[in-house]
Amino acid sequence: MIGKLTGTLLEKNPPEVLLDCHGVGYEVNVPMSSFYNLPAVGERISLLTQFIVREDAQLLYGFATAPERQAFRALIKITGVGPRMALSILSGMSVADLAQAIARQEAARLVKVPGVGKRTAERLLLELKGKLGADLGASHGPAVSGAQADILQALLALGYNDKEAAAALKALPAQVEVSDGIKWALKALTK
């Protein structure tokens, strides 16, 4: 198994990179989160890798961080999720966002990733529940209860990210009804 490659970056063609390691060029598929953080062509880089052997191909997948590779490994263990879909998921959302979506059982966030349908999202939630978040140190967001939890869910469903939703919640009074809280939070977010 090839666990890590260090060498000179020769080409960058999303989602693939060509890495020269002592005269041998390795084609490595990387998620877009890693791709955007790559240095310029000609620079030295290190990628953690996952080597996949299929009947018709031998493929290398590279990751800038260990949590990305760990999430990839967890994803490809799920029935119906191959390396391409796992790469697409990691390109569509960060590892922390994925772990948070799993912890909160938010299928809607997973369905937004290209190639992930409702059934696949539900399978991901079921099979990764309790596995991904603990391993990757996912935060479960701000501690909220009652009406604030409903307001938070509404803001996330409207497409606001966790930071924006948490900031809007902090600005609300402690005892607020859901409908009023959503209105106030939306006003705060549009400023």
Walk me through the topology.
Layout: E1 4-13, E2 16-21, E3 24-29, H1 32-35, E4 44-53, E5 58-63, H2 66-76, H3 83-92, H4 95-104, H5 107-111, H6 118-128, H7 132-136, H8 147-157, H9 162-170, H10 178-190
Parallel strand pairs: 3-5
Antiparallel strand pairs: 1-2, 1-4, 2-3, 4-5
What's the short story on this structure?
By secondary structure, the chain is an alpha+beta fold.
Description of the molecule:
It is a single chain. This protein is of the alpha+beta class. It folds into three domains: 4-63, OB fold (Dihydrolipoamide Acetyltransferase, E2P) (Beta Barrel); 66-136, 5' to 3' exonuclease, C-terminal subdomain (DNA polymerase, domain 1, Orthogonal Bundle); 147-190. Helices cover 47% and strands 20% of the residues. Strand 2 and strand 3 (24-29) form a beta hairpin. Helix 8 (147-157) crosses helix 10 and helix 9 crosses helix 10 (178-190). It starts with a strand and ends with a helix. The model is unreliable at 134-143 (pLDDT under 50). Residues 1-64 are annotated as: Domain I. One of its GO terms (biological process) is DNA repair. Belongs to the RuvA family.
